[in-house]
Fold these 2 entries.
Entry 1:
Amino acid sequence: MTFSPATRVLLRAFTGLVLLFVYAPLALVVLNSFNTSRTFEWPPPGFTTRWWSAAVESDGARNAIVVSLEVAVMATVIALVLGTMAALALQRFRFFGRDTVSLLIILPIALPGVVTGIALANAFLTMFGIQLGMLTLVVSHATFCIVTVFNNAIARLRRLGGNLEEASMDLGAGTFRTFWSITLPMMRSALLAGALLSFALSFDEIIVTTFTAGQGIQTLPIWIYQNLFRPNQAPVVNVVAAALIVLSVIPIWVSQKLAGTDESVAAAR
Amino acid sequence: MAQQHPPPGGGAALRSGVLHRHPRLRLGLLLGPPMLWLGVLYLGSLAALFITSLWSVDAFGGNIERIWNLDNYRDLFTLDVYRTITVRTLLIAASVTVIDAVLAFPVALYMAKVASPRLQRILVIAVLTPLWASYLVKAYAWRGMFASGGPLDSVGISPGYGLAATVLTLSYLWLPYMILPMYAGLERLPGSLIEASADLGAGTATTMRRVVLPVLFPAAVAGSIFTFSLTLGDYIAVKIVGGANQMLGNVVYDSFLTGNNLPFAAAVATIPVAAMLVYLAAVRRTGALDSL
């Protein structure tokens, strides 16, 4: 490589600083979850695990986690079906308007969340006359989750080509048989990676959620947000935040198991 | 690989045969449901949003009156407060995009062209991991960093809650979206090209400009779509670290929920859409959209 030793050292130092910038705030949250001070005095006067036990007993947080899990699972299932269908259509066929369709699929994440949120809320309320609730929330989440499954699926299909499917057809298997026995098994790990990302995206989402969930439904992000500015809840909120940071290692680990580094890069976009 | 077979049956075989002979029908069945969802429900909602922005609410109950008028847009363009918020939001989005590009480039370059394959893998994971951590938690983490008496304040470098804190927090939130496309772009650039450039007598600056930049630019544009769009629509980060400052998202949210004025909220929401459409149209020729 042609970079001078000085350039390399500079690049290395800069990368180190950026990583410090990335991880320092997260480390602070985890550290503060053990801070004895209710107001997160700095430096911490002492350490305690009592906020963690308080958080485990918090009904609000527990109920919110259940709601978030339900929404994320349902949205992911819908996204899996629709995203796979769209990927098959776009990768295996050439048709007029193909570029427009692929633009349409990325639109829900390319447009700001407030726009998606208020557009869907407005449609539910004024066009369909549906009260905001679980249904509208899941539909909204699925809308922006489709793209994550689609991206993973289409990248895999592009790499695989259609040879095995053609062979299967030539050997007499029909469309469905070929899909079940050939296409789906080959796509499985890509679909899992997409589903994982879709799940994480939904579980974490707050902007679209505030518009489309209505009053009665409290997902975990909504619960955190509502308790964020309440001083007496601060330590418990901080523990939940710390737990989420620690837990985010799991999907990373799974996605690394599922696919090589290159695919996880593709999956993140 | 697990083999899964459909239940045997003449019906399925027959249908499958029909599908086999008619690729157009197959395409229609595959494309129909996603298009119904995205093309009809989602695009329809966006269209309905625009229509709603041309209506107004009555003075008492906040009920929508379906009378066509441009009052919402007139208010938006003539009232100083909204003009200030629009300009502020666009400036924040532009600053965040520039800061992220400046921070991301050296990191991406180091990852793609200097680090050993092993370190490269570790760095990709290190950059990806925060993406899985909750958005809200990350914004909240900066609230702790900026707090008076917090870590930054104790060494005297905290800007406190306000616009600077908002820009920094948003840059932090969207940084991986800039690093990853840049890294992917630079990864694809063969090292031999850089060496050839040096062998042919180009200095570091010339190599950067004529070999690295052409690859980097579409990648940066792809990343900027996210940094720009996500910032335009944000209203949570600014509430958490921005003090009393407002962005367009806050106006949309407040008009919708607190103000009970859906038509005005809809009119405000068309600003980020228009900004993004202009932006997408402008970057379309760079080929950045293909690498999304």
Entry 2:
Amino acid sequence: MKMATQFWPMMKHEMGLGQGARMVGPASAIVSYCFFLGVFPWVSLYGNYTAHGNITAMFEVGFLPIMAFLFLGGLTLWVPWEAVPALSQLLQLPDQAQDTGRWEFLFTRAADRRTLFRARAVTFYLIAAAPLLCNVVISPFFPDLVASPDLAMEWKYRLAFPGFNPGITSPHQVGLPHGAILFTAWLALLATFVFITLQSYAVWIARRVKGNSWWTLIFPAAPLLAVTLVFILVQKRMIHLPFNFFEDSFLFFATHPFTLTLALAGLIFVLQKWCEQQFSRLEID
Amino acid sequence: MHLNPNSGMPIYRQLFQQLRQRIGSGQLAVGDQMPSVRELSAELKINLLTVAKVYQLLENEGLVETRRGLGTFVKAGNETKSAGEKRKLIADAVTQVVAEAQHLGLTEEEVSKLIHQRFEEMKKD
Amino acid sequence: MNPYIIETNNVTRSMGGTVVVRDLNLRVKRGSIYGFLGRNGAGKTTTIKMLVGLIWPDAGTIRVNGVEPSQFTVEDRWKIGYVSERQILNPFMKVEALLRFTSSFYPEWDAAVCERLLQRFGIDRSKRVRALSMGMARQLAFILAMGQKPDLLILDEPAANLDVVARREFLDEILGMLRERETTVLLSSHILSDIERVADEIGIMAQGQLRVSESLDQLKETVKKVRFYNFIKGSNGFALPEAFQFSKTSSEVAATFRVNDENSLQKLAATHGCQYEIIPLNLEDIFVEMVREPKEAA
């Protein structure tokens, strides 16, 4: 009953509907973010090639790591602080106090804290992943993709795309049936996975990290720092991954799209429940 | 009625003394209905419980009576108090006068003289 | 029914390594207006936060309306209104929208009371929260807490930022609420004359502990400052270990302590061969005498 009756008012509240421009300040940042995340994949896929988007170029040019950093960085700077009141107290900035005050208001109303967290999480997810989700929706209207894999990778493409069609335009290019759909869906899936794990991590540390010293800021930033470190080490060839993260994970998704989607849905269900439960036990000071 | 919440004397005592004085002086006559606890607390902007406490004290002193469902009324028969009761009633005021006199350094004779004078003035009126 | 709407048993809580509340046993009777006093840092706000379930005690138990605040359900919160010390309302929301949003949490929302109070305080429904003055924002927070028809209203420094007239109106509303609905009010304030006007019970906190918890009347009737003077042989032997404040010179002694009946005072003066004078104290005096560091003059 609480979930049902409280969820929509809270969603409306979180989205800032009917209360005026809550996002006016960061609006330009949000527009740039959406443009980059939403439009740039298409530009880089189809911009340089006349008829077909070449996905191999995408994997080689290094556009995906930039996008991933943008996404992860954006989430790190935003989700833990906004979703978990205890974290925002680490930063003793005036508007953080404002934020805590607003949490305090909601925490002392007859508002179900789990529902509150769900409304916030859904809002954040929708804003963070909106460009990627839009891309999935419009992807059927885009031409299929091609790939120009080297010999070592070609068998993987064959496995992932049963209708694999060698030599559409040239001997080195191969067509990927439903390629655009699978590619955008893969991006959205990856982003969703990152979102839910980062959110769970934020909730997890929120009940454990106390104190106001500057080094506690490391905790929310830890995932981003870890990923950056791995990225640098791989670039410097100090560690060697036995797979190409982006290309192999795309092919793996293309092989098992429904299984992976279902698995992610299950993971979201479990983690979200856990987060809501943890969140409802948070102290606001 | 004038109450000063910020004095050292509890509000209930101030109210009690003032009401008792009004009943004693006949401003509130026998059989008069007292305002209800709610009304009086709203009028004086003081705590409801304080007024209730004062009414209870007045009733204990036999100055008012509560008629079930009708309200509180000034009780008949105040005039027929025993001398002892009357003395008890005035004792508080006397104590206050004496304390004040000590504070000001007045002697017992001086105070007695003042009281005597006041009695004489009252007779003339 | 339990006569106490708030009951804490040996509650202890530390914040950032220091013990802020220590072995607190707070009892608030149903239907009373409880004035909760203490200097800054005495542990009032921490206690209040524990009562409304924002933080939990490290040790001890709390019962508010019979329920441990950390276990409050949505239903338990229906009847507990709270205005925090630093109440911050969403600045971008219009008053109207905020009222609607808040009312969505309560099945028995009292729109009539809200309307009456908005008019009384002169708050425009179509304004945004950020366009309201500090005082008005607090009044709005109070209105929001009143709208839920609380059985218990917890107000932490509600009169801060209000001018004298607004404060009187506000106190009048609190008294009116008690008349109409027998709501229990726990009120913390630095403005002791306000507390003195409305409260019937007083709790004084100092150093994380409750120094006093009793009726205001009893406090005023028993806690007195007494000046002893005209000593026959000097005030040397005079001592009052139970006094809250005690100061002594060669010819005079001033002490604040509980005078339960005046006979004992007379005896005390007689044994030391001196005269005495009682100085009545109002709440502010009592408060200062009780929380000030005990002074031991030579």
